[in-house]
Write a structure and sequence with these properties.
The chain is an alpha/beta fold and 271 residues long. The chain has helices at 12-21, 73-82, 95-98, 104-114, 136-142, 159-171, 189-200, 211-218, 224-235, 239-242, 247-252, 259-266, and strands spanning 2-5, 26-30, 42-45, 63-67, 87-91, 119-125, 144-148, 177-181, 205-209. Strands 3-2-1-4-5-6-8 form a seven-stranded parallel sheet, sandwiched between helices. Strands 7-9 form a two-stranded parallel sheet. The model has no long low-confidence stretch (mean pLDDT 96).
Amino acid sequence: MIVVTGGTGNVGRPLVEALAAAGERVTAVARRPAEGLPAGVAFRAADLADPRTLRPVFDGADAVLLLVAGDDPHGLVDAAKAGGARRVVLISSQGAGTRPDHYPAPRAFEAAVTGSGLGWTVLRPGGLHSNALAWVPSVRSSRTVAAPFGDVGLPTVDPADVAEVAAAALRGGHDGAVHTLTGPAPTTPRERAAAIAAALGEPVRFVEQTADEARSQMRAFMPAPVVEGTLAILGAPTAAERRVSPDVARVLGRAPRTFADWLARVVEAYR
């Protein structure tokens, strides 16, 4: 059995679907139930911030997908081991490798996983295409996108590609690997806003925020060190952060999906 924590999220849901399609026995775990899970997929409610709630969920698991959540990474890993898991795959962050001082939580989770004695794989996605869903309210209300650093390009990645790589790792053959996951080419916030306009067939105005404006928004849902690390990546990415990683293509045997590919699947959200 494969247990997928965060099994109803942007990465978790397509991961559950991919595993179910491959004939795996899957349990999706989240705080709240969600409709539309594939037939045969079990659902268990649990809180990643409280490893005690996960001990019964992991019982009988062969492999576990973990997210960076809560402040007890060793508790989560120990719960997976107690359930019988032999392999754990962690969805971390590219920033854990490029800016470790700003991403202490992902680094702590990586240390817990790699030191667990289990088979492990660490996935380090860069920014996700689906981060652009944060623009849905302003696009729908005023056909406007606001973002900082409008002309700085980064190779964001499709969450479905992250899910497919995670599915491959959970099924075996990638133990001991750290995969950096990106899209096929850098795009800028201004270019992504233009792609939304093209998909809608209507103008969408791009408004460039100041760093302070973006910082104020981000602090509502991110810890301060992560805010500063994220702004640094968005505004002054290193060569490693600008680089298109080959890992998606190596694992999946095809090129990563583009932002336009992702947008075609979700464009109705912006109408």
